[in-house]
Specification:
eleven-stranded mixed β-sheet; 15 strands; alpha/beta; two-stranded antiparallel ribbon; single chain; Amidase signature (AS) enzymes
Length: 476
């Protein structure tokens, strides 16, 4: 079957469970595709070919003996190169850790392996996950499969590029200021940032732990729901982990949107927004109404306050994480991350306390929207489509906006409030690059944002239609 890389996880799982395709055959197919396409895309920092094949053979033997672990049995996955994998090089996107091979898996990786997933390699990241482009000075830029002279977003850019190009059906990412949802938006796939504490952070290199999240990127919202079912769970060894009531992220996906109330704040503009991004939001809102949802105008918290508070907290926590390391190894850091860490040293206690207080106030403001009867709200995921590799500014309407702000300004709110958000693709802009919207919902209600995302993506741009044109299909 030469089109396996176009299939979602549910379809692949049916093929595996019915013995039409073995885990070994499935992994071999994706490894061939990685071998052919990744030299140009640079979505992987490390490919664990031999370990992946050994795991796949073991899972094939299990299946022959009648043991099927579930829908991830034999499914190839990429793991962002910020998250530890036992026996597989994990660099954190840094030259300092270029030869680092962890002895143990991060907790999310352990959960995926237990469910039968096969780790095929480490997807590229911005250095220490501290950026939005995945243009890494140590390992080279990762390229967007839709237009390879453009970035795939970041910091989980390798994950977004790998999923969009069909190098893997699934990958993990991490999200501190948008780093799961930005690559999903840039690459035309789906990215889910869960509620803070839903998925363990143990074994993922910290950027700003009170803002850090681990979550999935996949071809569809349904794929992300399936993976979250395995990733989610309390981890007593992770101080940020939280106990949540048992959740079924899959069962409600097909429930119609009739009666769902979705908010929109058209005046919420952290930065100027390109017309393509606004048109994508309008398409999503129209689709929501057509599906029976009610769209109501709301007032989101002040965009400037959100950006400032999230930025100050991120800078302060990243400074605490890197202060001693960068002092000892300054020359080993890339110029852009070094500059951000230099700026982080200037955050004083007063600024940090003000930002923390702002976070609590903003969180209460959003909670009151939900208490007033809003189930979720929609915004653009990014203010623009994916910028060119090397660009420092990008045009949004008649304005010129710094690349980082244009890509991350809309995603910061969900990180700051620690609420779940999913980014879904909404089609291609005239420049041939994907557009996206995100749905944010109340804390612990991933099921709601997944339900809305699933309905909208299937109405607007189904996963079976989302295939970058220039990759070719002659790899099997």
């Amino acid at each position: 079957m030469s089109q396996l890389h176009r299939m979602g996880v549910a379809d692949l799982a049916r093929l595996v469970s019915s013995r039409q395709v073995s885990p070994t055959e499935l992994v071999e197919h994706f490894l061939r595709r990685i071998e052919r396409l990744d030299p140009h895309l640079n979505a992987f920092t490390t490919v664990a070919r031999e370990q992946a094949l050994a795991t796949a053979r073991s899972l094939t033997d299990e299946l022959a003996r009648g043991r099927w672990r579930g829908p991830l049995h034999g499914i190839p996955v990429g793991i962002k190169d910020i998250t530890d994998t036992a026996g597989i090089r994990t660099t954190y996107g840094s030259r300092l850790f270029a030869s680092h091979v962890p002895a143990t898996d991060a907790e999310p990786v352990s959960r995926l392996r237990a469910a039968g997933a096969v780790v095929v390699g480490k997807t590229a990241t911005h250095e220490f996950a501290f950026g939005t482009t995945t243009s890494n000075p140590h390992f080279g830029p990762t390229r967007n499969p839709w237009r390879t002279d453009h970035v795939p977003g970041g910091s989980s850019g390798g994950a977004g590029a790998a999923v969009a190009a069909g190098l893997v059906p699934l990958s993990t990412g991490s999200d501190t200021g948008g780093s799961i949802r930005i690559p999903a938006a840039a690459c035309g796939c789906v990215g889910l940032k869960p509620t803070h504490g839903r998925v363990s952070l143990r074994g993922t290199y910290p950027l700003a732990p009170s803002l850090d999240h681990v979550g999935p990127l996949g071809k569809s919202t349904a794929d992300c729901a399936l993976v979250l079912q395995e990733l989610a769970g309390f981890d007593p060894a992770d101080p940020w982990s939280r106990r949540f009531p048992g959740s079924d992220f899959l069962g409600g996906l097909e429930v119609p949107l009739r009666g769902v109330r979705l908010g929109v704040d058209r005046s919420h503009r952290p930065v100027p927004v390109a017309n393509d991004a606004l048109a994508a939001l309008d398409r999503a809102l129209t689709a929501a109404c057509d599906l029976g949802a009610e769209v109501v105008e709301v007032s989101l918290p002040d965009a400037g306050e959100i950006t400032l508070a999230a930025s100050v907290i991120l800078l302060a926590e990243s400074h605490a994480q890197h202060r001693d390391q960068i002092a000892a190894h300054r020359a080993e850091y890339g110029a852009d991350v070094r500059a951000q860490l230099d700026a982080s040293a200037a955050v004083d206690a007063r600024s940090l306390v003000h930002a923390l207080h702002t976070r609590e106030r903003v969180t209460r403001e959003v909670e009151r929207l939900f208490e007033a009867g809003i189930d979720g709200f929609l915004t653009p995921t990014m203010a623009v489509t994916a910028p060119r590799i090397g660009a420092t500014t990008v045009s949004a309407g008649e304005a010129s906006v710094p690349v980082g702000l244009a890509m991350a300004s809309f995603t910061l709110l969900a990180d700051l409030t620690r609420m779940p958000a999913v980014a879904i693709p909404t089609g291609l802009a005239p420049d041939g690059l994907p557009t996206s919207v995100q749905i944010t919902g109340p804390a612990a209600d991933e099921a709601l944002v997944l339900r809305v995302g699933h309905a909208l993506e299937n109405a607007i741009w189904p996963a079976k239609l989302r295939h970058p044109r220039d990759l070719g299909e002659d790899d099997d």
